[in-house]
Amino acid sequence: MELDQGTVDQEPGRATWKRQIEFTLAGIGCAVGLGNIWRFPYLCYRSGGGAFLVPYLLMLLVMGIPLLYMELILGQYMRRGPVHALAKACPLLKGVGLATVAISFIMCTYYNIIITWGLYYLFSSFQSPLPWQSCNNTWNTPNCTDRINPNTSSHSSTASQQFFNYRMLERTAGVEESGVLRWELFLLLLLAWILLYFCIFKGIKSTGKVVYFTALFPYVILLALLINNVQLPGAMEGIRFFIVPNWEKLLELEVWVNAAAQIFNSIGIGFGSLMAMSSYNNFNNNILKDTLAISITNSLTSILAGFVIFSAFGYMSHLQNIPVSELAVDGPGLVFVVYPQAFATMPVAPLWAILFFFMLLCLGLDSQFAMVEVMVTSLMDEFGGPLMKFLRHKEMLVLAVCSTAFLLGIPHVMQVGIYVFQLMDHYTAIVSLMFLAFFEVLAICGLYGVRRLSANLKEMTGNRPNIFFKVCWMFVAPLLITIILVFTIIQFKPARYEDYVYPPWAQGIGWVIAMASIIWIPLGALHTLWVLPGSFTERLVKSITPYALENERGGDTYPNIAVISSLGRETEKPHIQTNL
Fold first, then answer.
1. Would you call 253 exposed, middle or buried from its count of C-beta atoms within 10 A (0-12, 13-18, 19+)?
2. 79 — alpha (psi -120 to 50), left (phi > 0) or beta?
3. Residue scoring higher pLDDT (123 or 533)
4. What is the pLDDT of residues 139-149, one digit of tens each?
5. Residues at the annotated binding site for Na(+)?
6. Residue list for the binding site
7. How far apart are CA 15 and CA 30, in angstroms?
8. Which residues pair with 414 in a beta bridge?
9. Under 8 Å between Cβ of 530 and 441
């Protein structure tokens, strides 16, 4: 997609989307990604199947849609990315904007390993029979099974599980054993970052036909897989596990926390990507239709993926002669175990495998692109002058960011990699994100205020938000996030992978990773209070007063704008592109 140098009342010369539909498609492309294909099904499986859908849909209604609407309104009105928009809305909590950038960068350092695994499977698919189709391989153990056998031992594992664990990962027994570097995965990780770099470096100027192909391609593959899977023996048992709730599970707080975390992860709340993209909307754009299109499309994609994966679950349980709830699959490995098992039953199995993993590559690059872009854009906004003086070209900054993330991702391609991945994902995608969501809602709905947010929307579109959104912003979302955050801390469960529980020192590293993003919130608050003039009470009052409001009053609340997160600076040409 391209950005036009448009003109709006608030900021002449500000870039805007060439066509408004491009923002909607870009938002859907940003939200719909690997999380829909692997995170939603595995959280659903861990949380009791159908029991997960109840809190998931409720969280979508009362938190997902309203909070996405809130982010898009603020981004479109402030005409800034997350760092500057939140600093202008609530200087005291400007650190929330910095935290969104930090969490996006941390996630992009380990998120690319899924693309790496996808590339490994993609290249392994160019052979017949597929290497995970039988148990006649050097890495298989005696308890491997590749056929329907009612007398199979409950301790057996499928050929696809053994290919993932013993061929690709060659995983160790735990995080205590680092193992050696997997050179094949190392080179594929490098290739994944090279592909990502050229996506950002070149940009993609999509025609209408390419856009619609990119949007429809994943659904064509998923529908084809679903049609095949429902005909497999045991498929209905898997689907029944997916849609029939185990009501006792709803009493477990972890199910509700996972549902909320999945909504935030999948839609992108708290990551800053969609807020940055909305800042380039036409000032009078009707943001509600974009909000509904992005959030509903995203959740429907997750549910479709759920039907596909759980029908394959039923087939696997039939293969191993055990209940669906006792299958030994967990974490991101799920998508590399269950889907390949389905391919083995299809005519022309290699073709289906190639198409699927190519789709996975596209979705992965799409999601990864948005997270890296937040980091690049924020650096350009904040330090554009000095960086360009040193690096001379913007492409060199992109290269520096990608190279740093690549180096930080190397531990994931060692034999201990799956344990490192699961540890980082647990503390970043669930723990950090809940803290970040809490303070973002506090900053925007609490201190900036629902009244100001409503006034912003009326100024842009001529209409105020309806009573449902106001109630959600004022009461429902803040209350639910507070309750979930409190109980997350009280009933916190250590990270685990399958039956493996991490030792205390590894849990400590996990908390350090979590604090790497959360720490910016108190640091930002202390910095704001330090640089503002006046007594402590005066500083506190000024710190919760929106910067734009003080400008209108002609006040001198911010004597040193450069110190308060460079609020007045904006790059001449924004580094926002989309790859739809």
1. middle
2. left
3. 123
4. 888 888 776 44
5. 29, 31-32, 36, 266, 298, 363, 366-367
6. 29, 31-32, 36, 266, 298, 363, 366-367
7. 20
8. 181
9. no
C-alpha to C-alpha distance for 92 and 545, rounded to whole angstroms: 9
Q: Are 565 and 93 in contact (CB under 8 A)?
A: no
Q: Could you tell me how many helices (H) and strands (E) the chain has, helices first?
A: 26, 6
Residue 181 per-residue DSSP state: B
Q: Are 554 and 355 in contact (CB under 8 A)?
A: no
DSSP letter for 230, please. Answer: T
By the 10 Å C-beta count (0-12 exposed, 13-18 middle, 19+ buried), 487 is classed as middle
CA distance 10 to 548: 12
Domain boundaries, the chain: 22-129+196-529
Ramachandran angles phi, psi of 409, nearest 5°: -90, -5
Separation of CA 463 from chain center: 31
521/433 Cα distance (integer angstroms): 13
| pLDDT tens-place string over residues 43-79 | 888 888 888 999 999 999 999 999 999 999 998 898 8
Return d(Cα 23, Cα 44) in angstroms, integer. Answer: 30
Longest Cα pair distance anywhere in the chain, in angstroms? 81
Residue range 395-453, pLDDT digits in tens: 788 888 889 999 999 998 898 888 998 888 888 877 787 788 889 999 999 889 899 99
The two structure tokens encoding residue 66: 């309203």
What tokens does 16 get? 């805007």
φ/ψ of residue 157, rounded to 5:
-140, 155
The pLDDT of residue 154 is 52
Q: Is 189 helix (H, G, I), strand (E, B) or coil?
A: helix
- CATH 1.20.1740 is the classification of domain 22-129+196-529: yes
How many residues are there in the chain?
580
> What is the per-residue pLDDT for 15?
58
Residue 319 phi, psi dihedral angles, 5° rounding:
-60, -45
